[in-house]
Inverse folding.
């Protein structure tokens, strides 16, 4: 039996179960209309997942929940992932409305373009709160449920910035908080692996969303593409393809790994 004081789980912690036919993926970061989260959610809906759609932007959550509810069971959950009690309450709503949670895709994140010497403690802490602590809180609630099911898949979103120190919209605080996501992923992979739960990290290169300060102009895209061997900026679909693989039942032996999806921008 697993016992963590306030909760416990009966059962054989070494047994890894098959995916249940009805299963839910919790996807954060679905609020931005041009963000990666929505494209991931649409793909997972097509692949048979029920969806808990999480973001701090209530209007965005409602919009994507309505869009997807025609094709799968979809629940919009407006929550700030940095607020522990709210995250716990959000999962109680998910339990009531949807099949068991088997997948978690942590995509909610914020950039921080402030240069190191001008960085305030508030900006530093906010970067960590959303990018690292928010991911942790989502993992804690999701993994508790995955343990009950006996199988689970966690995908975290770091960035190649964690490895190279940053770019225009993502300097030191972003790089450091996204490096924390890598440590979080590896710790989760070690501690949750025995329960049939895998945890992996995706490190996107530049992806054409509004996180870089709005829609990229053709000129800026061309500039950015020049440093990318495949000759283009990434699209949310490029990330969704990797999420789809890592969330799949077949990916059960992939654990604690880092996947750059960057067109070869950072080859090392
Ligand atoms: N687009 C890129 O070039 C790129 C590159 C590397 C990594 N990433 C990472 O990929 C993820 C998705 O990025 P995107 O480009 O879709 O960004 P985006 O800005 O389009 O979407 C991010 C979403 O996170 C949500 N969010 C922010 N703070 C939140 C909070 N406290 N609680 C709940 N939701 C919150 C926002 O409302 C937004 O909907 C992020 O973690 C980002 O750091 C993106």
């Amino acid at each position: 039996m697993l016992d963590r004081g306030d909760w416990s789980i009966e059962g054989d912690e070494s047994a890894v179960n098959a995916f249940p036919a009805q299963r839910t993926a919790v996807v954060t970061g679905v609020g931005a209309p041009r963000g990666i989260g929505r494209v991931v959610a649409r793909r997972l809906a097509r692949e048979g997942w029920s969806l808990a759609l999480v973001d701090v932007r209530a209007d965005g959550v409602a919009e994507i929940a309505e869009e997807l509810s025609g094709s799968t069971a979809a629940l919009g959950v407006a929550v700030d992932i940095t607020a522990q009690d709210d995250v716990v309450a959000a999962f109680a709503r998910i339990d009531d409305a949807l099949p068991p949670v088997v997948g978690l895709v942590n995509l909610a994140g914020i950039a921080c373009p402030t240069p190191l010497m001008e960085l305030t403690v508030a900006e530093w802490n906010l970067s960590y709160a959303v990018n690292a602590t928010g991911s942790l809180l989502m993992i804690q609630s999701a993994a508790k449920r995955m343990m009950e099911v006996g199988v689970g898949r966690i995908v975290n979103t770091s960035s190649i910035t964690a490895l190279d120190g940053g770019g225009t919209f993502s300097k030191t605080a972003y790089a450091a908080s996204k490096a924390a996501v890598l440590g979080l992923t590896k710790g989760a992979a070690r501690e949750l692996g025995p329960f049939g739960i895998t945890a992996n990290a995706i490190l996107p290169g530049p992806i054409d969303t509004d996180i870089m300060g709005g829609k990229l102009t053709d000129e800026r895209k061309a500039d950015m593409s020049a440093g990318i061997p495949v000759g283009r900026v990434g699209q949310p679909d490029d990330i969704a393809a990797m999420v789809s693989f890592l969330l799949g039942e077949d990916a059960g032996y992939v654990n604690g790994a880092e996947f750059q999806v960057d067109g070869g921008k950072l080859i090392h």
